[in-house]
């Protein structure tokens, strides 16, 4: 029977390739979907200029990446994870519990989060963080008490804003972009309200951080392109995503200014633009010298050509670090300086 | 109706029933017309949805089947090439120098000034030159003609996807960049040949260099593994259940479970694979072997059900005749029943494989959606598959990936149609009617 022959030969091929693939010879990078395009760029560049195979980069989200990265030491576990926030204490403990104690934390640059609207929108949008909070949070203070968000139109919040329904597309809770947005815009905006400020920072984090689920805020999944498409079809809807997406789509979308500052590479780097966050990658130092090319890849990733101003990461939308910070991060990365225990 | 009186069963009643039929005829005909109308409307609706789907895919996808190229005369400067290590040559500068011939006013020795001009070319241009020289070192010192891809923005401009009448501040290319491109176009070095890169290259972050080779090879390995496992196992299970197993409560339970398994959402199989194959057996992430095993779990019930149906369709007279001339039960199955059922089995298998080819969710969970710039050389190497490649491209910010996503979907649909055509051919060619 021909199918017997076919399966036997296929099994033989599989067996031969199994012996060839006994050891992992390429670097594995997991982690944040925000850092993914930068890791991609560094990986492709590394594959082209070095004699090592290009690293394999997978977008798992910051939290998912930490789970895989902290799984243990050895070929089955990833070498590098990207993160759009610093590693949490619980994640460090997970790592330490699995024997992953020697980790270098490298900040590659920062990412500006942008709130964007379609270019068809006639209004010149300029919001304060407090207005963003009042529009999107689940509970807001009204007459001294926290109540379910009553605002349905922008003009309900401030008369100077357009008389249009609040409609915002944003990332789901699994996304690092969402974490950063809640932390940098919502909670900070909440803290600027005198009544909340009096309650203290911890109280604010517990009570302001929930986004509303009664319609005006819509979770649009991890696919930022989908948000872009929806904004194009509704001039008054706003979308929340990384600045690089706004930059790539600047012909159809325009930025919402935050406290009078338009997001741009300059305003994000200087910190003038309020909603920006650092981007990191974490290297498992026990894998250096074991996984071929890991040391060289880390050096490529942190090289001036890559993370410097005008480098290929900046071309993709990352906002580079200042000169002295960059040199410091580069040296720490190359010398495998372990991050302090958390 | 035992106590019906004779008058009621007589001619009187038969007349009234003819009357009744006649009266209801118009209404029944109308009902039939309405039903037919609904049927036609449903078919029309389904067809128009198909036309909209395929039409939108083709209209967004067709630009991806060509790629703007720039033809350059490059002098392979022996001074720029490191003869010890050919791959370390300064190919960037050679390309820049040859491009500079079209722009006499631009000082190509200045990095910033030359960038204005060289941004027309893909960053893969120098690699293409490098590969040419690596393959044939005798080219050093010669002037060669080489066609290199234009970068994504200029490709979009050439295809009219970046519109020249958009105000400059909203356009992704400024007027100076467009003027540079037009200079090259006027010199006749711009062409838009068939985009072979789409099939011959693996993934890249640059749309103009990205292709489906890695995904095609990855899908091939995954499907091969899936076939090798699910085909013999599925047929074996079906033969036992259909021909040998005693009909009792246990075999009933097994049958119900197999039928239910065919309806389990594929993402569940992905979670199972993540827990069992990756975390417990420690198999490699992103590898087609794991993908194939997962898809095999999914395809098995389909094959078992199709095989049992095909075996059932072989008339009992065949079995009885074979038993009658002294064949053992095993001989009956392998010499007579199975060969006669084969066309039906193969049809079911191919349809199952086509389903597996288009399956995405379980592959996402086992990491087959990674960014991999080379095609796998075996089922243990990391790879993507066609549907996951579509997923990655759909999520990429670069504009060039919008049309490439549609093009990749068209490639996937072509394979699916091809596989289904084979199934239909097998069925009509070899199927026997009793």
From TrEMBL, chain A:
PBP domain segment(s): 17-305
Keywords recorded for this protein, A-Z: Signal
Disordered: annotated span: 306-342
Record field: compositional bias (Basic and acidic residues): 323-333
Coiled-coil features, chain-numbered ranges: none
Domain of life the protein comes from: Bacteria
A Pfam family reported for this protein in Swiss-Prot or TrEMBL: PBP_like_2
Signal peptide: 1-20
Annotated protein name in UniProt: Phosphate ABC transporter substrate-binding protein
Organism: Marivita lacus
UniProtKB/TrEMBL annotation, chain B:
PROSITE patterns according to UniProt: ABC_TM1 (PS50928)
Keyword check for Hydrolase: no
Keywords (A to Z) from UniProt: Cell membrane, Membrane, Transmembrane, Transmembrane helix, Transport
Subcellular location: Cell inner membrane; Cell membrane
Family: Belongs to the binding-protein-dependent transport system permease family. CysTW subfamily.
Membrane-protein topology: Multi-pass membrane protein
Record-given protein name: Phosphate transport system permease protein PstA
InterPro entries given in the database record: DUF3333 (IPR024573), MetI-like (IPR000515), MetI-like_sf (IPR035906), Phosphate_PstA (IPR005672)
Transmembrane segments: 34-58, 220-241, 261-283, 289-311, 332-354, 407-426
PANTHER family: PHOSPHATE TRANSPORT SYSTEM PERMEASE PROTEIN PSTA, PHOSPHATE TRANSPORT SYSTEM PERMEASE PROTEIN PSTA-RELATED
Location of the ABC transmembrane type-1 domain: 216-423
């Amino acid at each position: 029977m021909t199918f017997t022959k076919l399966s036997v030969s296929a099994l033989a091929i599989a067996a031969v390739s199994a012996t060839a693939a006994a050891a992992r010879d390429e670097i594995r990078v997991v982690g944040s979907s925000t850092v993914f395009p930068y890791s991609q760029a560094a990986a492709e560049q590394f594959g082209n200029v070095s004699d090592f195979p290009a690293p394999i980069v997978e977008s798992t989200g910051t939290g998912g990446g930490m789970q895989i990265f902290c799984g243990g030491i050895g070929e089955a576990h990833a070498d590098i994870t990207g993160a759009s926030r610093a590693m949490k204490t619980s994640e460090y403990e997970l790592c330490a519990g699995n024997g992953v104690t020697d980790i270098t934390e490298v900040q590659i640059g920062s990412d500006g989060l942008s709130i964007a609207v379609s270019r068809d929108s006639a209004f010149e949008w300029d919001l304060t963080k407090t207005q963003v909070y009042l529009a999107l949070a689940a509970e807001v203070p009204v007459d001294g008490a926290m109540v379910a968000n009553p605002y349905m139109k922008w003009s309900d919040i401030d008369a100077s804003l357009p008389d249009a329904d609040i409609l915002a597309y944003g990332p789901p809770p699994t996304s690092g972009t969402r974490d950063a947005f809640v932390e940098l815009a919502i909670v900070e905006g909440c803290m600027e309200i005198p009544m909340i400020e009096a309650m203290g920072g911890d109280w604010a984090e517990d009570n302001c951080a929930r986004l509303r689920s009664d319609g005006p805020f819509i979770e649009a999944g991890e696919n930022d392109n989908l948000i872009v498409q929806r904004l194009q079809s509704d001039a008054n809807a706003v979308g929340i995503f990384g600045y690089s997406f706004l930059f790539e789509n600047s012909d159809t979308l325009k930025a919402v200014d935050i406290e009078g500052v338009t997001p741009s590479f300059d305003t994000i780097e200087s910190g003038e633009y309020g909603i920006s966050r650092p981007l990191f990658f974490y290297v498992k130092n026990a894998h250096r010298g074991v996984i071929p090319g890991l040391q060289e890849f880390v050096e490529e990733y942190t090289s001036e050509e890559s993370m410097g101003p005008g480098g290929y990461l900046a071309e993709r939308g990352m906002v580079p670090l200042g000169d002295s910070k960059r040199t410091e991060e580069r040296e720490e990365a190359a010398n495998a300086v372990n991050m302090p225990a958390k | 109706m035992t106590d019906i009186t004779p008058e009621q069963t007589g001619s009187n009643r038969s007349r009234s029933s003819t009357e009744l039929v006649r009266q209801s005829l118009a209404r029944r005909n109308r009902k039939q017309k309405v039903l037919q109308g609904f049927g036609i409307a449903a078919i029309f609706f389904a067809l128009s949805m198909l036309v909209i789907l395929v039409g939108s895919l083709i209209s967004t996808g067709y630009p991806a089947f060509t790629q703007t190229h720039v033809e350059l005369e490059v002098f392979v400067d022996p001074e720029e090439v490191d003869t010890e290590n050919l791959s370390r040559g300064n190919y960037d500068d050679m390309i820049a120098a040859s491009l500079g011939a079209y722009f006499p006013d631009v000082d190509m020795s200045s990095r910033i000034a030359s960038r204005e001009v060289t941004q027309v070319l893909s960053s893969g241009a120098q690699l293409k030159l490098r590969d040419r020289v690596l393959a044939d070192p005798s080219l050093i010192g010669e002037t060669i003609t080489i066609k290199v891809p234009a970068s994504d923005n200029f490709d979009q401009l050439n295809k009219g996807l970046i519109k020249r009448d958009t105000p400059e501040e909203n356009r992704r290319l400024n007027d100076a960049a467009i003027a540079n491109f037009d200079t090259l176009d006027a010199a006749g070095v711009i062409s838009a040949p068939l985009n072979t890169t789409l099939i011959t290259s693996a993934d890249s972050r640059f749309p103009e260099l990205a292709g489906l080779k890695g995904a095609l090879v990855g899908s091939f390995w995954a499907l091969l593994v899936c076939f090798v496992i699910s085909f013999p196992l599925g047929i074996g299970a079906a033969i036992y259940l259909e021909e040998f197993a005693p009909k009792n409560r246990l075999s009933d339970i097994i049958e119900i479970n197999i039928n239910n398994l065919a309806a389990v959402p594929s993402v569940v199989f992905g979670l199972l694979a993540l827990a069992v194959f990756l975390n417990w057996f420690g198999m490699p992430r992103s590898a087609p072997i794991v993908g194939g095993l997962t898809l095999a779990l999914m395809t098995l019930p389909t094959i078992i059900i199709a095989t049992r149906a095909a075996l059932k369709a072989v008339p009992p007279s065949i079995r009885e005749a074979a038993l009658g001339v002294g064949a053992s039960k095993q001989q009956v199955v392998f010499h007579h029943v199975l060969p006669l059922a084969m066309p039906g089995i193969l049809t079911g298998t191919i349809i199952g494989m086509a389903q597996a080819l288009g399956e995405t969710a379980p592959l996402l969970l086992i990491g087959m959606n990674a960014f991999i710039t080379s095609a796998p050389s075996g089922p243990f190497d990391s790879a993507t598959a066609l549907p996951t490649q579509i997923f990655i491209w759909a999520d990429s910010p670069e504009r060039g990936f919008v049309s490439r996503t549609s093009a990749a979907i068209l490639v996937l649909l072509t394979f699916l149609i091809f596989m289904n055509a084979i199934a239909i051919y097998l069925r009509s060619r070899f199927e026997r009617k009793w």
